[in-house]
Amino acid sequence: MKIKIPKIPKNSIILNFLHSVGLDKKILYSKSKKVLAPNIKKLFFLYKLIILNKRLTALEFGTGWSSLIMSLSFYENSKKFEKHNLPIKENKFEIFSLDQSKKYLNISKKRLRTLKKNKAKVNWLHSPVKMREFNSRICSEYNILPLCNPDFIYLDGPGLFEVKNSINSFSSAHKDLVPISCDILKIEFYLIPGTILLVDGRKANVEFLIKNFKRKWKYKYLKEIDQHLFLLEEKPWGKKNLQLLKFYN
Fold first, then answer.
1. What is the domain-level CATH number for residue 205?
2. Does residue 222 form part of some domain?
């Protein structure tokens, strides 16, 4: 199996496209000082990646603009394949968005409500974050994980200062440190062959994942948008998984 990687056009083309799928200027360029303006190249890439690779269920670590654009892309997939004989899978066209911050979860919920239509179901989950050891290495983890098996994972959280505890007086809550989480490693052996993982920046976290993964992941760095793309490239587990892989292709 291969990942279909979308090409990124000029910003003017991206803006026209985003407007066409429902993100008008009021949404994209809100004057609110509470959140950063969106990176339109990343939004476009995320939208197209989900569409081109026919993803059915997403798990998002760290809510934000990504929650909005994924809702649009999963809605598009649901309309495209509603009459298709889809493979057996739970939580079709659903997103599970996990965050430590109630504030940013509420901002994402409010942003999604600005779309009157053309949006998929988002399951919002709040969870505290703590420091822990994974393979004798200090990292962070969410206390709660959603009960789902995603075929698409987007990693952009938690942040440095979201943890409250420490290990041996050490935590990530320092401006000179970098975020390193282990949540994906904990569920790695539940993930189905064909799962796609996209990491936004977080190079140190990517190195941590690569050195601790136990299964066969294909990896590519996308320099233009500073994102890391993984594909769980293994033989099908059985009939259900084989049907999914044929559907993706």
1. 3.40.50
2. yes
Give a yes or no: residue 208 inside a domain: yes
In a domain, 66, yes or no: yes
Beta strands 227-232; 121-126: pairing state: unpaired
Question: How far is 15 from 11, CA to CA, in rounded Å?
Answer: 6
Residue 137: domain span: 11-248
What is the rounded average pLDDT of the residues 121-148? 96
Specify if 146 maps to a domain: yes
pLDDT tens profile 92-113 = 999 999 999 999 999 999 988 8
- Detail the DSSP E strand segments found in the chain: 57-61, 94-99, 121-126, 129-134, 137-142, 152-155, 196-200, 217-222, 227-232
220, burial (CB in 10 Å: exposed 0-12, middle 13-18, buried 19+) = exposed
